[in-house]
Fold these 4 entries.
Entry 1:
Amino acid sequence: MATTTTTAPGQPTTLVGKAALEVDDRLIVAGPLRRTLNKVFPDHWSFLLGEIALYAFVVLLLSGTYLTFFYDATMTEVTYEGSYAAMRGIEMSAAFESSLDISFDVRGGLLIRQMHHWAALLFVAAICVHLLRIFFTGAFRRPRETNWFIGVALLVLAMLEGFAGYTLPDDLLSGTGLRIFSAVFLSIPVIGTWVYFTVFGGDFPGELIIGRLYILHVLIIPAILLALIALHLLILVKQKHTQFPGAGRTEHNVVGHRLFPTFAGKATALFFIVFGLCAALGGLVQINPFWLFGPYNPAQVSAGSQPDWYIGFVDGGSRIFPPWEIVLWGYHIPPVLWGALGIPGIMFTLLALYPIIERKLTGDTASHHLLQRPRDVPVRTSLGMMAITAYVVLWISGGNDVIAEKFDISLNAMTWFGRIGFLVLPPIAYWITYRICLGLERHDREVLEHGIETGVIRRLPSGEFIEVHQPLGPVDEHGHGQLAYGGASVPKKMNQVGGARRAIRGFFSPIEEPAAVQRQAELEARGLESEQSSRELTGSGRPSEGGRPSEGGRPQQEPRD
Amino acid sequence: MTTTEHGPGSAGGDNTSGPHHSGPDAEHSPQQLAAMDRTELDRLGARYDGVEVLHVEPAAPPGSPLEKKNTRQVTLWFALAALFAVAFLVIYAGSGWFLPSWEWEIGGSTWSAIYTPLLGATMGASLICIGVGLVLYVKKLLPHETAVQDKHDGSHFDRVTTGATLMSSLENSGLPRRKVLLGTIGVMGAAFGAMLIAPLGGLIKNPNTGNLLATTPWAEGVRLLREDGTPIRPGDQQVGSLETVFPAVEGGNRAADAAVMLIRLRPDQMDTLVPAEGREDFGYGDYIAYSKICTHAGCPVSLYEQETSRILCPCHQSQFDVTQGAKPVFGPATRSLPQLPITVDDEGYFRARGDFPEPVGPSFWNIGRLD
């Protein structure tokens, strides 16, 4: 591999080398580039969730730009004369007509439109799951509060962006959603009617709203999203990624793979897979067939009108909120304000402020770069499950008419389930989660103290039967393990400590021969022997983690009870 | 480790770089670097960036059967990706040329129905094959390397020096002393900001102009028309049925607040009819007319269940009882659906006796205070 040079030392001899020198002479990028390529990223599947959101956003930008070539954001009434025979001769807005054209008269337009819609659903979903991962592992703690705030802002903007986007076809379903939004604007105390007239440029629906939503959807919100995503990533790179605790991992280092080539290769692969998934869904699974709903008409509605999934909880809140209209000196505060603005408002405020709330409650102001396992922070985990439960009740209530119809349940009973469930189920979820966390914590301690259950039953001379336990480390005179819990996953099966071969692959039935697996494990163990000394640092204390070859040898410690 | 300290001064007019800006080049001469192989250079650079490579599990050795097998696998996935991409191009461009047309038609030829699914399947498959191929490449053909990088806390030196630079500039500007100037700059900033956003004022519309919120196109003498524009006589409608009607004015069937449900009650419903107070004469015979716009969030309330005399809004499930002045009996709605006073004109067609006595649609702040 060594390069020997006949010219002056360090002077490039190859064409690429010379070109690189020319570039670096002008831009001086070699240093920053090396720093970037050398940057270490920790490896865990849950760290890919935010990446999925990022790649979905890229798909959205690409497919969305394509759609703007054909879409016409005007509400001028036209008579449809295109290919879709069922709508011919019907009066509709130019926005609806151009959406029909994209779906029926543009070659491949339907694919891109549906890909765009699926990518949007995936974008918000990935943000939500990413947020839950950050929450439950405590990754929002100091110094990462700023990125948490940015993340919550991104979520809210992504939802608004999605709403603005699916309203653009100006069809009956989205128009109904827009009408509900208009009622929410109207419900704002004191300035509601002013906001309503300002947004719509007059009484609903007017002739401006689609054009205004369009510029929000394609310019204003995407620009803010793009800026915030860039800031989010810059801060992430600057602060370095968090990692789960494990051997060799501290608050002052990052253990993982360098950006190039491993991390870059995997990240690029994920981009293609996300893109491919959106494309496949866009082609194979119909989404928002607005030509079945028809153009918007304020006097029409179809039963079972559902918004996109991420707006469902707002709808649910409006459905289950009791008919309490506050009337003071002739001024009205209608219930839709609480259901559609109050509940989400409180929810997102609490969400955004959570890092501050937790810091106040726990008094923990230290910097943290090691993540926590959810079980180790039972209160936070339980609060999270409580919030998720409340959200799910609202979300289910957003589709309570569909559930009532499909399962033949009384619609009013579903509404009452939502009303009572929203208040009663979250505390129950808190209690159950708390108990589960404590149970898991205790089990970890027990395994550390008494060792792994081997499944080997031994009969003592006295006649007593005992199960043999495999200690995880050195033991004291009573046979109790002396390892302290380090915040990392504790091995609980013999094959996780190399005391048995790894599990046989296969979901319903084995797809490989146990003997072959054993042989392979022994072979690999021999190959790995030279690397024994540094092996501990490759995983989070579990040599078999991530499907990597297990050690395969017998445990060093003799089993004892 | 990251940067060498920056000293004052420079090399002046000398045509060599300053002594304090050479960085690692001072420690490693070109000759030294030339004597190192690539791996050593890579590790040296990594160490310079605070990265230590702990452990490398080499990839399968070149030429070994395992390596050949893995290479074949990766090649196969990339070949599949290329194949699907070509299939996409053939389907996309070939449709309507040597393949049947993709365009939609009534009854739908098989080809036009599977055109978009085929495009999605081939494009998706191609992209996913690239992704899978890349994953396999990283996992099976690259060495597995575990590295550790130091994480640095903020530097006290950086804080103190940056703070000094900023504060000395602020002090030199004299702003803290020049209170009047500082205040003026504050006022200027506020006024400037207000000026920038002021043009947005053009968006604001006065909701009280024209009293649009309290009025609808309905008025004394306006006929009730069906969607197709035909007028209605008593007796046209089945007993117990509901028909959506619109005011006989320009754009009446498009207005957001004008849709009305004309309901013909059954005799037993007539027996239990309890009209709202002061509205006993709003109906005509067994006909009554209510606004179709929900008082909760403005959806058209459309689902009329004859047996229970209830009208259900499909958006949030508010339910209104038509025999009790359409007052809300379940769900989040709080106000009754406004009732339209109707009668029959000289030609025997239904007409309105006036506008709704109250605002139509969702509640708002001053709904109770409109004229």
Entry 2:
Amino acid sequence: MIKITKNIIRQCAKNMMFDLTSEEVDTIFNEFDTVYAQVGFLSSIKGVDEVEPMTFPYKEHQHKLADDIPLKPLKRALALKNSNTAFGNQIKLPKVIGVNSDVDE
Amino acid sequence: MELESIIGIEIHVQLKTKTKMFSRAPSTFGEESNTQILPVDIALPGSLPVVNKEAVILAIKICSALNMEIAHTLYFDRKNYFYPDLPKGYQITQQFNPIGKNGKIELNLDSGEKLICTIDNAHLEEDTAKQLHLDNMSFINYNRAGIPLLEIVSNPDLHSGEEAMKYVETIREIVTYLNASDGKMEDGSLRCDINISLKEKGSKKMGTKCEIKNLNSIQNIKDAVDFEIERQKKIILSSNKVESETRRYDEKLKQTVLLRKKTSAVDYKYFREPNIVPIDLDDELIYDAIHTMNKLPSQYRVELSKLGLNNYEINELLREQDITIYYDELIKRGADYKILWNFLLGDIKAYLNKNESRIDSLKFSKNSLVTFVSLVKENKINSKQAKEILEEMLTSGKKPDVIISEKGIEQINSSSEIEKIVDVVINENENAINEYKNGKDHAFSYLVGQVMKLSKGKANPNIAKELLISKIGDYFKK
């Protein structure tokens, strides 16, 4: 298991485009002691590896579906602000498609 | 060695909703880049997906039309891949529990034979952003990211370009008749990927398959598949191995060309989407979706065939749903099926095409057209007069009887009146009569033409012909 460091926490926050204060980093970092302890406890249970992973702890189904009524979209300038490489009305990226790429276009 | 081609097709149908699959951003086509976006579409932290009800309803309609088993609980999964066309880092799809499974459709081949193609599943998912690749950079427009898609996956039941083409054509017909999608291949609202492999006939061992992408017309499907079958055949018969590749169809070269080699299978590490708890669909929602479906092309096909239209006529009519519905309604009002087909698919459609307008913009009423068809059927107007009247109806919207009285167009159906004209024509055209006697058929057409000319186009041509034959007989007896 990867040992979580304060730098990893800061980097994760940065990847999600927000900054954490030192106090917030400390709070999250300290919570990992509890997480490690719980994971360690669970790993010690016999046969736990053979149990299918669960996404939802309870059989909790819902009926809610969204009505097909449009909401006002984000203003383009605001949407493009989330990229630091906007060009004109588009988001600009280095070309990532290669001849041998398996990624679907 | 006798080879057999095995073809399976995946069709992505963009569903005709007002909003996206998991967000309520508008899904309007053709808007300015990056203006149809909400936080969910660009994966802003804290935003969560909610499933679009209308997309589910349209998917149920399509699944029902494809004779599929419909899931009563919806589950969604994540297809993980790192690529900028979906900023979440994954696509929400239905990998393990599709909304529809085990379907089948009947294909009408040109030979008149019917072929059943089975469908493995149909699953809901979200579309990706549109990318534009230039020399060393790519540009992304997120308007398309999140638009609802229904991916329909066939079983490998198809074996030729024609069968592949008919399959896609039939699916396109179904989704457009259901008003569930625009089905426009040229705009990308219906896209298909075709997997083709060849194997020795009778053998259970499958060959290496190639995938053809980016097909933008029904005709290209046939051409691309036929080319690809021949390409693989040549490779195998020259004792070489077909390589697993993604190819595209080059319209100018009329051949498939390499896009990329498939070196290894991509592991998308699918797992259940934890942000959408399973959704139990109300029975009422499923029932309503199925029972409010538009009439399907297959249903029209049976009815039109019973009326007496042939396969060609049926296919031509079914090309456009609004014209089919219009035709269907006029038949119910008593119009003759054949005469109506001729005028609707002939002069009226040509007029609509020329004026880039639709059938619901016609200036005359449906009852006017029924009256017009009756006038033709009862021989009250001849074909020349019919064209003149219809042209006036199309431009002015006037009723046919009004046009007839205004223009003084009326057919002469009185045998005695036509007989007088026929007598004049016979007396003045001795040469033509002799030519007709000597076996020159065109001479008879000439004589009919003379009768029509003298009557100013008003004589009933059938009566004129009968009288001419009888009078020419009398002429020679003399």
Entry 3:
Amino acid sequence: MAVSGIGPVEPGEGTHARDTHSDGGALDPRGVRPSDSPPRKESWPRRHRRIALAAATACALLAGGGYLYATRPQKPAPAPPPFPSQVVDLTYLGQVTPAGGSSPRAPRFAMRLSVSHGPPVTVTRIGQPSAGITMSSTPAPPFRTKAGSVRKIVITMHVTDCGKVPKNAGLPFVDVTLRNTRAMEEHSFIPGSRYAHDLSTALQVACSNETRHHQNA
Amino acid sequence: MRQRSLIAITAALAAGALTLTACGSRDNGKSSDSGSGGTTVTIGIDAPLTGDLSALGLGIKNSVDLAAKTANKQNYVKGVTFKIVAKDDQAQPSAGQQNATSLVADNSVLGVVGPLNSSVAQSMQKVFDDAKLVEVSPANTNPALTQGDDWQNTKTRPYKSYFRTATTDAIQGPFAAQYVYNDAKKTKVFVIDDKKTYGAGLAATFTTEFKKLGGKVVGTQHINPDSKDFSAVATQVKNSGADVVYYGGEYPQAGPLSKQIKATGAKIPVVGGDGIFDPTFIKLAGSNATGDLATSVGAPVEDLDSAKTFVKNYKAAGYKDEYAAYGGYSYDSAWAIIEAVKKVVDDNGGKLPSDARAKVTAAMQNVSFDGVTGKVSFDEYGDATNKQLTVYSVENGAWKAVKSGTYTG
């Protein structure tokens, strides 16, 4: 049979019809009219039972509350900050020619260093691995970069021994030491073919006979 | 007293209700492993599941399985349940091509993870591309797969359905050369390869860069990958005066090769790419392998918090085999397919469109998410934009990371 869905399904507050005896007297919860109940003194075991029930209920509530508190959803421990090499990006911007010109044996290149997220990262060293060249930078290490910010770095290659200079490296490295609150790491950045091309061209110029002749003159 | 009874009963009911509420709140975090039912989408897998390279292939399979189960558990794509179908290519191009045809014939397959070998990929690419079925390899490193055969001069993407999460040998070979020449200070190399697409290509990119840096190639040789006797080549290495050997190939041959080279008395390191980066190499090469080097794609697992979660979940899933060198990349490859399916379903009112394969392939180009191996997205060639590499050295019978680099060009 279908249910109409009209009308209260269950009685609401104050809508209970009072159970009545034929004489109209209300029943107590035990179904006994008060007037029918002989006044009697509560026995000790009965009182004891009530006290025990109340105590047990209180214990259950305490235990339940304690259990809920102990098993409440807790925020997971905060993740450790990322390793610095995972948040730092170093990209090549281009070769830099100062207004007054630069020494052919000290070509300069601009890089952009950014930190994507996490605590600030300090560059404690910047260099390159090839023999015959040393590197300096502006700003000079150590320098600190905050997350979300970008820093322009100009590196200068100082050619010290043309015999050991790789004049046509395909993927030259820029080696940096990075430090944040998580770790200190050595990491290599490979700025790509445009940097490789500009660096090779500059090093070939720096080590050409013409340059040597010019410098010796 | 009646009032007290009511209080006691109310309190008991409240306690009961609270307990039920507590149970309910715990259940809220759980989802059915079967997802929400509805459409079933299959992620195909092609890898060597048997044979010498099965250690890598099974790691790929299990990692994809973990990704599918995770997506189902999270009900990540509403109305879609993912399942996997794994095919064994035994590292053979012909088997790979048959598997590709079989996967294309299964209409429920909307993406494929694999293969391991670049030579196998070459045989599969066109089959998948004709069917507009997306393929994401976690391990192929040969540049031609994404940039065309003439990649050194003109980059042209041959197949729009092919993507990979691993970086290429256009970077891996030079990266190894830079380390060997500048950091390890080795200047005379003997180069050996297995004549296969991956091995020969990697050896070539290493050699080019090594020579540009000023290094000398004192000998070259090819080996037969079906052989385990490399004594003749080992003797040539010994007599060449090389101070390092570069091997383009995989660990089943690289291990015995290293052992036999050391046995001649040539105490020089053998260096290889990601194809030798497996514990099996060390077992095969023996105790004299200390100091041998391998480059591999990505950063070391210990540097990636996201990878730690993957490792934990992989162990909890109880797979028998290790996730190996490409586990994280395989999980990310599968998740890229899941993301692409999600995009297509969301854009189509919660249902898969009739041309789902083509749409998933198109969606893959713009997929971007934080994966196990870092940010996962693809460039215009289908190559991973995350281009990290690490040099590992054999120390105390295990691979140890010694230098990591990031390509930012």
Entry 4:
Amino acid sequence: MSLTTQQLSLRTGTRALVDTLDLALEPGEVLGILGANGAGKSTLLTVLAGLARPAQGQVLLDGQSLADLPPLTRAQHIGLLPQGDEGGFFGSVADFVALGHFPFSGPVPDLAPHLAAWELTDLANRPLDTLSGGERQRARLAQLAVQQPRIALLDEPLTHLDPAHQARLLAWARSEADAGRTVVLTLHDPNWAACHCDRLLFLHGDGRWQLGTPAGLLTPDSLEALYGPGTAALWRQGGRGQTV
Amino acid sequence: MQILTELRGPRVAAAFACGGLLALAGALMQTLFRNPLAEPYLLGVSGGAGLLALLGMAAGLAWPWISLLAFAGSLLALGLAAALGGRMLARDHTPLLLAGVMLAAGFGALIALVLSVAPAERLPGMLFFLMGDLAWTGNAPLLLAALGLAIAAALALSRRLDVLQLSPLKAASLGVAVAPTRWTLFGLAGACTSLVVAQAGSIGFVGLMVPHALRKLGFTGHRVLLPAAALAGGSLLVLADALARTVIEPRELPVGVLTALLGVPMMLWLLRRP
């Protein structure tokens, strides 16, 4: 039961972003994707979610091509937290969170635990567009939690979150993995990646990629190769420096 | 009694159906464009209808032909907007919006041209059409049937429309087929609007104000919003038309003037609510 890619290549215009990626996402793992701006992290998530076609290769869910799955079936298994806001939504926070149930039939499940988990209980009846950026990000995470996808793809989920809610996100990602689901997230903080991801995928933005464990991949040299000269020092100063 | 059943009744029914169709179309357009300022005429429907109807009037044609010309003109505008701006609709609605706004501007210029060269004795009829007028509307049963069908179709879409308020990528990730659903919305809103414009000209403001006001009052889920919009839009137009017929009796005002005069203060009052 997993999501795999076969010889997956991504392009933007004529530029190669990712070249022939073979990736097998295992149940119970948290995979972190790192790369510079424009390296193809969001594009890769969109393709893994079955919402864009790769230049070459394919994505398989339990051996079946994503392109052949009906949209609702796909949404029952794979969830995506894209970047960007939900500017056109006029309803309340609770209405917004409940939309996570859309792929499934039957009555909407009890939202209270999801609202409580993201500290949205007191905001539940507020119009979504009156929330702050961080509160809205929590509402989007709660919506994804209602969908409870077997494979959750999160594009920079730490954006706008204060440290307490970043920790909350970490706990959520780990508990999802412990329950046998898969969490994939893009992020920019190597310390976070070192401590909380089981595997990492580096995207160099020119077709090259590296897949491995945090211990194997996160070295000052590899970080400078990924982000450019002088960047490793930024994190060596930043606290948990033992891995970096 | 005869006056009630043969004159007033059909006109009130037609006014209700037109108002309902316009408000429903406005709600659908606001969801299609994820923008509370969207309205039924955004894509040039009223301009296309107005241009062909005015050309017909200038040529001396009578009412059923004017109505058919207006219907053809609105379909022409929708077709042009779709052909020029519809390619990216799965991801981005901006090209469609821009194409529609440009078409509306172009039609507006052509309408001004027709008005400036048209024979003077035909100008009042033209102006009434452009402002929206229910005096000619003869087909109440057709309009009511269309309203019923449109509400049913919109309700069948309502759960998907709730999701479609999110970004296209998020909506797609939740299993909504974004492009087909958006084209369905486009077609449904366009059909409602074209039908009204062909029967009653470009009655303004109902399609913008009613769904917007209902959203502000807390009708945010489409299952409730869409029928409520149809009901409130229909009621508003019945009221406006009653006033249009009576305030300066024995003459009539174009009902579009009254919808705006009633609607603007209501809208401003709503905006001031916390």
